[in-house]
């Protein structure tokens, strides 16, 4: 056999067997790529859009490129050599799909670079909507740019081949080399820049960490899903480079040697190289993307396993699911244990119920009265609109106090301060470094003693850990470390959830330890780049909802802009502000309606002292102390409260008594003494009667006033009017008898 026949046989084996196997594996892999990247947790990521587009384009390349090649190899008949339309369409479609796939990978590299960029305008490219727009633009671009293929590619005679001829063959070779090399250079350049930006981002976040061993892989503060996608992109770039770099090289070689006479063996070798560079390696690249992902990323392998489990192991109908639930339903005791130890969601209502009962028994006004001087001494006071003046608000349904002030948190006296730490808990820049220096090396030792959850991560983003204050014991008892998020404006929702978790977990620890006060800084609003306005919104809304039974929440802010943002947001949220200097003289929780009611009651009491006319409209005031009593009970109680009136004696009885007294006095005393004694006794009796009359009249007046006030508070019904008339008649009879007695 000659070299030409050997190369033809090798080409046939590669096409019939290797490409056939790759086609089956490529179709399966592309479908799995679509299933994984279309999941909810990946679907919202902009890089996943490019991977989905790449999988679709590669699947179409396999169907439109490998299947016709297999048919030609098995049947020894190429329809493109006899149909001009099929010749043009096949070359155009395969070229367009390959360029769309390559451009999608290049856009994924740009997306990873934009994610790590410090420039806000560049980071704008890392957005879901922009990713979809760029994919659409790429499709339109590559559908229009290769129009020349439909015009100049045709069946060439003699030799019956599908391709270009003459000058267009040279132009197409240069064009193919350029359009193939541009995505390759974009991938290499932006992958390198993305890695460089990651290193700069790590240095910016952890400026104080020094590694003595240079061989240690430095952990980068980045979302795990983004790191996973970055690894996948770089692996695609490597494979794409290996499979594509030969085509522009071959094209350049073919252009240079086009005018050189060549032997049959050389032409056979060039044809075999052309087959490898133009078809085999490119088709292998399209089929191998999914398997490259499997080899490059361990999380991707786990996602693949989970996807297979969801597809094949999921119950096929609801009846099967319900039967399994009935069979595997735990007992009440085991369910209680699950709720107690394994299910935090079911544990939350019980905790919140306890907190609610504690909050209901807590009187914030009483707390302010008892601790007013201490609060003023610790945090200052003043109602001036100038900066650095503390602002006091009621939050948490007026069960907690919010204080916003400017100052140094290491000098603020609270039960616990919240440190905006990093995932390593080893100290960094900004507030984290200041607190570590103030607390001393003991804090660093306690931090590094924590177990690493993953490589280099002791404190995941959004979580909190509580430690002692060590050298800061004079101002605080505890230091709560919380890992805030690094802000990305195109992942606002994720960053906001992580920041919310920072405040929520810190307040949960404060409630767990029964702390009376907790001090926050503006978490992530420093070197982590979180905007002050958005950070204030998340912080104030969270402490308003999650304060629990912590009476005092303090925000100690250093920068003027951050302080202004916090104050503005507190006013936008309509928190009730108050002046702590006047907290004793005026109740800030008393509404205007309550004040009006108090003034109304005072005016009613004043009007009760004045005599009321029968024609004056006096609306009855409901007395809840006698609301449950019947009218008969009210009448009886009123009659029992009336003073006892002495009964009148008849005139004959009085005359008999006087004559008896005179007779007895005449028998015992002489006339002079008898007259003197009679005059003295009469005078004493008159004085006693006068004093008694005054006291009885005074008691009657007091009783009438009490009854009058009681009558106003009773309901306006016929029974009460009857009681009032009877009481007035009795008062009139008493007054008449007293007047007759005086006479």
From TrEMBL:
Span of domain Macro: 389-574
SMART domains named in the record: A1pp
KW Nucleus (keyword) present: no
G-protein coupled receptors family 1 profile domain residues: 29-293
Keyword Transcription applies: no
Spans through the membrane: 17-37, 49-72, 92-110, 130-153, 173-195, 227-252, 272-292
Residue segments, region Disordered: 319-358, 585-743
InterPro entries in the cross-refs: GPCR_Rhodpsn_7TM, Macro_dom, Macro_dom-like
Keyword entries, A-Z: Membrane, Transmembrane, Transmembrane helix
Ranges of biased composition (kind: Polar residues): 330-339, 585-595, 646-655, 672-683, 717-731
UniProt subcellular location: Membrane
GO CC annotation, single: membrane
Bias (Basic and acidic residues): 598-611, 624-639, 685-716, 733-743
Annotated CDD domains: 7tm_classA_rhodopsin-like
Protein name: Macro domain-containing protein
Source organism: Rotaria sordida
